[in-house]
Amino acid sequence: MTDTTASADGGALPAVPQTHDPDLEAIYRLWIDIIREARMLGGRDAARRLWRSSPLPPLDAHSKGKDTPDWVESFLSDSTEPAPGARLKAEALWTAYVAWCQPRGLEPITRAGLMRQLARHGLRRQKASCIYFLNLRLRVQ
């Protein structure tokens, strides 16, 4: 399992994969540091090329071949429920998402990124005076 840490330029890079081997974890930490430097000096493409040649897990390993990361699905299953005829403001969904990420130590993706992920997940939205997601509501917690 991996979590994320903020990179020097504000983007999120996967953090060191957690292992039970301190030597392997030290190697992973070194590679992460080198990749961060490559990103600062050569940009995202340089960092991705270096990552692919490293012993670190593939960058897209968490998605298991799906367009929606597992944690977005987890957020939806934990925090929302289907509600035929209901409309949920996108702003309320964003606020709930950020609040859901914080105690789990996850770096929230951007608002636009979340909206894209939700669209890929199949949620319908409607634009009126603001953007609403249709047939969805937040769970009472």
Binned, the helix content reads 40-55%
Q: What low-confidence regions span 5 or more consecutive residues with pLDDT below 50?
A: 1-10, 61-68
SSE pattern:
EEHHEHHEE
How many H/I helical runs?
4
Largest sheet properties:
3 strands, antiparallel
| Assembly type | single chain
Structural class: alpha+beta
Shape: elongated
Sheet-strand content, in percent, reads 15-25%
Radius of gyration: 18 Å
Span from first to last CA? 27 Å
DSSP strand tally = 5
**Mean pLDDT, rounded to whole units?**
78
Strands in their spatial order, largest beta sheet: 3-5-4
Could you characterize what this model shows?
- The protein is an alpha+beta fold and 141 residues long.
- Helices cover 47% and strands 19% of the residues.
- It is built from 4 helices and 5 strands; from the N terminus they run E-E-H-H-E-H-H-E-E.
- The strands form 2 sheets. The protein has a 3-stranded antiparallel beta sheet with strand order 3-5-4. Strands 1-2 form a two-stranded antiparallel ribbon.
